[in-house]
Design goal:
Elements (H helix, E strand, L loop, with lengths): L1 H14 L6 H26 L7 H17 L4 H23 L4 H21 L1 H4 L5 E2 L7 H27 L2 H11 L1 H6 L4 H27 L1 E2 L1 H4 L3 H13 L5 H20 L4 H15 L3 H15 L2
Antiparallel strand pairs: 1-2
Helix pairs in contact: 2-7, 2-10, 2-12, 2-13, 3-4, 3-5, 3-10, 3-12, 4-10, 7-10, 8-10, 12-13, 12-15, 13-14
Length: 308
């Protein structure tokens, strides 16, 4: 039953630009972007159990790598690939430096990276434009064509991320991630190279985000450090994964959809204090649904079977 529903959802998203207006197309593009961020964080946080706040760092680095590449004449799609590669290289170096830390020590270390990178970008004016930001080449396409181009590009990236998440989750790599989450010392004793596995999880949490950051830069045509290194980019994916179900493939996608729904509804109805209201809604959901929305579904299913 689950596979036909997933196939139906994919077909719906594919066909949506044929009847949806630009607002719907843009909103769905954001939803797919959120799905990429949440699925990526799930590699290190949901499967491996490391509370990473480095998503904003990877997104910002990918955005600037892609933007600088395009400004220097690199084609847009190749610039997105460069954004993913640069984010992956950063994750490898950063992972080897801080993944020996655990718990809140690792969380704090991963959190401050975005601030350091933002200051570097602000200071490196000749390359990044500094605090003035960076303008990207404008595509000479009709606005409707451009909206659909970015829509299907993000659809492709989100599908690649979902396929990668599903593949990893059902292979030896995913098993190693779960072992580290359960008991890292025991995983090391049974022959799992925890350093390599943790670094792999960290890199997986970076490459798709870096590509998404480069995509975002092309999409909005202008970036600045406070925008792409925003701390909310580190917090939102965590909330999405917790809302859906950590450690699953579909959970982060469900959490991204639900989070965007609440974010959009609160933005419309509570314009001046939407962040506070949205925060209360999210905190309430996380507190009362510790296993996420999918966890609630499974609890009800098992309760119904047990009552028969």
């Amino acid at each position: 039953m689950r596979r036909p529903l997933i196939a139906l959802a994919v077909v719906f998203v594919l066909m949506l630009p044929l009847w949806g207006n630009n607002y719907i197309i843009r909103l769905t593009t954001i939803m797919m972007l959120y799905s990429v961020l949440s699925l990526s964080w799930n590699f290190i946080g949901g499967l491996t159990g490391y509370p990473s706040f480095a998503t904003a760092s990877f997104f910002g680095v990918g955005a600037y790598a892609g933007a600088i590449s395009q400004v220097n004449g690199v084609p847009m799609y190749l610039a997105w690939t460069i954004g993913a590669l640069v984010a992956g290289i950063l994750a490898t170096a950063l992972g080897l430096a801080i993944l020996h830390l655990r718990g809140h020590y690792f969380a704090i270390a991963s959190l401050v990276v975005a601030d350091v990178l933002r200051e570097i970008v602000n200071s490196w004016t000749d390359l990044t434009g500094g605090g003035m930001g960076l303008n990207l080449p404008i595509l000479r396409l009709h606005v409707d064509v451009q909206a659909k181009l970015f829509y299907y590009s993000m659809f492709l990236l989100s599908m690649i991320t979902i396929i990668a998440a599903s593949y990893v989750s059902n292979r030896r790599l995913g098993f190693g991630f779960r072992c580290i989450k359960q008991n890292e010392n025991a995983a090391d004793m049974i022959g799992i190279n925890t350093t390599i596995y943790k670094t792999a999880a960290f890199v997986l949490s970076a490459v798709f985000v870096g590509c998404a950051g480069a995509f975002y830069a092309s999409w909005v045509n202008y970036i600045e450090p406070p925008d792409v290194f925003d701390i909310l980019l580190a917090l939102k994916p965590i909330v999405m994964v917790l809302l859906g179900s950590a450690g699953t493939v579909i959970g982060p996608v469900v959490g991204a959809v639900v989070f965007l729904f609440f974010e959009e509804m609160v933005w419309r109805r509570f314009l001046f204090f939407h962040s506070g209201v949205l925060g209360l809604l999210v905190v309430g959901l996380v507190l009362f649904l510790p296993g996420g929305l999918l966890g609630l579904h499974f609890r009800r299913l098992f309760h119904w079977k047990g009552s028969r």
